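User: Before I run my own analysis I want an independent prediction to cross-check against. Here's the chain; please return only the structure tokens and, at the end, one sentence I can use as a sanity check.
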Amino acid sequence: MSALAVLCLLTAVTLALGYANKARCTGPEFNEWGRSGPDYQSRSYRDVCYSDVQNLWVGRDIDRHVFPYVHGGIDSDGSLWGGVVEYPVLTGVLIWAGALLVNTDAGFLLSSALLMAPFGLAVAWWLGRLSRWRALLWAIGPPVVLYAFHNWDLPVVASAVAAVFVMHRWRESLARRSTVAAVLLGLGFALKLYPAIFVLPLMLYVFTEGGKDWRGALRVAGSAAGTGLLVNVPFALAGFQGWAASFEFQSRRQVDISTNSVWYWGFRNWTGDDGFQNAIDVVSPGLMLVSFALACWIGWLRYERTGTYPWVQVSAAMLCGFLLLHKVHSPQYTLWLLPFFVLVQVRWGWIAAYLLADFAMCTGVFRWLYLNNEGIPSGIHDGFTAQALMIGVWGRAALLVGLFAAFLSARTTIHREEPVAEVPAAPSPTPARNGSLS
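Assistant: Structure tokens:
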């Protein structure tokens, strides 16, 4: 317990550093909308302290304390109005709650950080229980400093890690554990969508552990889907137009600099073409589905050799496919991957290389945006900024390909793969012929 307390204390320090890093962009002046000044946008890129939390204070009616989704919608040009934000409903509620008692973007950043910090601490606790000292990767990890309060990702990371914790630490039946884990993944879907992809490997795990347990696998799917529906239906009934607008915003999102994916950096000169944009809307999800199917199939081959379906490793590989092939690859998505570096025993070289590439991408992209906005030459031959950005973008992409394979061939670091065995049902009191209980 003392080791876990130290782990959480270190995480608290890291989270504080993460907040301090983003708070450099706040104040010292504020305009009539509570926006920091002077030169907020330029300073946030130049000093690499930009956060979506602070940036979205103005433009989504967050500063007006409008409850999300109920009264809003999306215009023909893709602009959201009436309190609608481009995130699933539970994240929208967190955003609204963080803005309730404040009137500036600085206050919003602070209150949002206070709301999300407990989720970061919970992740540290669960990872510590699962993988012991390896959880230091989370507790003192550079991505936590860079991204803990970049966007609203700590709650969704917590939902995914909690599902693993429930499956591997609860002293309950497989049916109960898998049902609760599926509910947690359903809640994750209502926060940031990506935990939904882990439902399939969890289904396969339950199916194989239960001896071709179709009912158990379907129960996992139903629990996750039912949770997602229960959370979303009230918002859809209260204001269908506003609720649907968040999904429409993402479906209409163009491949551009804001998406920061390989689709932009690899096909940058084509992004102004409608045909290219329409093609990516098909190619990107299609390739993601192929990567998911490949990961699940390789996991099945491993199950046939070992007798256990590696659902955690398959989930990690599927996330690599998602990060690489989705048309959006925001910087803070590294927080999604970081717990799998803790839970799966990949070589330290993979981890160090990915964190270095991620740091180069993060610092490079914001410095590059600053140079572009200021009209300063920012080409690959004009200085190290663009070079660091390309090292980060393509180094990260190559590493995701390698990690896809590495995760699928690795073992977990969970120091006891299964919880304590279930207590067997009481035997029949009828004595056997030899006088003993059978």
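Sanity check: The longest helix spans residues 274-306.
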